[in-house]
Amino acid sequence: MDSILSTAQTWLTDFFDSETKKEIQHLIENDTEELKERFYKDLEFGTGGMRGVMGVGTNRINKYTLGKNTQGLGNYLKRSYPTEEIKVVIAYDCRHNSDTLARTVSEVLSANGIKVFLFSELRTTPELSFAVKHLNCHAGIVLTASHNPPEYNGYKVYWTDGGQIVPPQDREIIAEINSLSFEDINFKANKNLIELIDKEVDEAFFEASVSNGSFDAKDKDNFKIVFTSLHGTSITAIPEVLKRAGYKNVTIIEEQAKPDGAFPTVKSPNPEEPEALAMAIKKAEEIGADMVVGTDPDSDRLGIAVRNLEGKIELLNGNQTMVLMTKFLLDKYKENGFKGNEFIATTIVSTPMMEQMAKSYGVEFKTALTGFKWIGKMIKDFPESTFIGGGEESFGYMVGDFVRDKDAVTSTLLACEIAANAKANGSSFYQDLIDAYVDFGFYKEKLISLTKKGISGAEEIKQMLIDFKENPVESVQGSKVIWIEDYNTSTAKNAQTGEEKAIDLPKSNVLIYETEDGTRIAARPSGTEPKVKFYISTNTTLEKSEDYKSVNLQLETKIDGILSELNL
């Protein structure tokens, strides 16, 4: 506690504003537990940048922690490009303080002689990624905490290719940040270097989204869509993109259309949660819509609900959406003729069905650690290859490479194109998915997330993962574990023969068990939330689509049995 108190007292100097000092003094005198939570560590970059609860302290999002980040980034950019005029583009989402924090970040960069393009109002994360290349910038920053609760905010950094920072830039930037004290931050803005942007970049982004996501689907006039932005940024882009692509029957959930960082109509603005789309699904049932689309606050994740075999609206998971989107794109490439350099990509905790499809179509399959920055890095590392599309189980997808992060704007259009085309051909999005299971194997996944907040929660998560490793799973529902993949040691070990293979990916706190029948169980801590996550994947053959219901029930029963075995 002495070191925490000592750190907190450094925030009582004249460099910090009076409100900050007043709050810290109050915590020192009256609430040592809260003081500890705010100062026991520095916020760190995770799988999706830096996210945290807003407030004063080193373990909080505020003008000083983000100012220090930005000062370090500015120093690194100046050292990396000593002879160039450095340019950075900045966007922000709907969250509380996002606009003021974006302005602070802009001011710090300008104070360091860096040209800043600042969006005049909130914009989507995919548009920020697009804008980096469109404006020939050296970096981009978006102020967002994605789908985290209202008390959170965050900070994501993008590099010259429009992708998030990855090795070696991430480590080097973090080292630069860690070498600074808060007093090194230059807050004295040069307003001549801050330029507001909006419509010109919007226009280019909309055009690119329609170009990449539209495939001349038939009979769009008879395809009904219900869309909700869940109080987030996608309201600035998705309705316009759908309109330009020819969709006229789009019903917007007006109660959720106004950007609002309190997210007043949902418990969580996360399209992975069925509750978040409840209002939209209800409207879809009322008006007989074909599809529901909902996006998270910064519009990089999308949730899709479509009519199932009984005609009821059903929310699909991220793996299901990813599989059908990828198959559709593969079919389009196949129609035009593969050139032999194409690839699709996903992450190590997403469905293995992606690899089966790649084999079937004869294209390369690449897998990455969790986090879309790693898929963006693939595109950068293999410029001779063509990225068709790819995604991750957590409701993120990217169409082509004009955006280098998950993109709910273009992916929404792609999903609508698939569904509208299927309906026009007498099928449906849901039926097409079942047909894919017949062709490539029926893969079914389930995610279990356990929230553990604060210092004690972080320790609990750490211990759970240690236990998962030190008490290895030997069999799952009667199927022997064959491979144990430990990404902390970059080693895959055959549990039956003792054979070991190197894993050619950066080290990460992930452990995966794979059984002889192809069942996979993965465990990892979240890089953006105080959660530990367990991913279950199982599979079987589906001989014909008419067997879907009975085989689906078999897999559901198997997953329930796995969860029971693991006490989850």
Structure description:
With 568 residues, the chain is of the alpha/beta class. It folds into 3 domains: 59-197, Alpha-D-Glucose-1,6-Bisphosphate, Chain A, domain 3; 204-440, 3-Layer(aba) Sandwich (Alpha-D-Glucose-1,6-Bisphosphate, Chain A, domain 3); 442-565, TATA-Binding Protein. 38% of the residues lie in helices and 21% in strands. It is built from 17 helices and 23 strands. Strands 16, 17, 18, 19, 20, 21, 22 and 23 form an 8-stranded antiparallel β-sheet that branches. α9 (238-244) links the parallel β7 (225-228) and β8. The longest helix is centred in the middle third of the chain and has 19 residues, at 318-336. The protein is globular, with a radius of gyration of 24 Å. The model has no long low-confidence stretch (mean pLDDT 96). One of its GO terms (molecular function) is magnesium ion binding. Belongs to the phosphohexose mutase family.
Protein traits:
Phosphoglucomutase; eight-stranded antiparallel β-sheet; TATA-Binding Protein; magnesium; 568 residues; alpha/beta; globular; phosphopentomutase activity; Alpha-D-Glucose-1,6-Bisphosphate, Chain A, domain 3; single chain; 3 domains; metal-binding
